[in-house]
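DM from R.C. (forwarded with permission)

"hey, sorry to bug you on a friday — could you get me a structure for this? deadline for the figure draft is monday and I only need the backbone to look sensible"
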Amino acid sequence: FNAEVFFAQLASFGNSVIFNKDVTFNDNVNFSNNTGGYARIEAGHDTVHVSFSRPFAQTPIVSLSLDSKFAQYSYSNVTAEGFDIILSQNAVEQLQFSWIALSVNSPSLSQ
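My reply, with the result:
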């Protein structure tokens, strides 16, 4: 195609797609469960391992939030296959985290 194209129905691509310019979405965007999910640390424990449903091609950037509770936490051992969520001490109650993992080509580093 060398001109603007409009698809009025669902368009499916059977292989990888490359966009060489900015992409705009005018509605919701849905991602697979490999890009985000939930993890629980049970009372009495201090860690949980999150495994991605499909390994990333490179180590993703992970963002993590604790849902409606307070605890000191971090994450470590981030690989293309998964990561660990770690508490500074054992949980006194069940804690649920939400996470997002995104693969970013040549991520920038601010110093």
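R.C.: lifesaver. The mean pLDDT is 95.
me: no worries. The chain has no helices and six strands.
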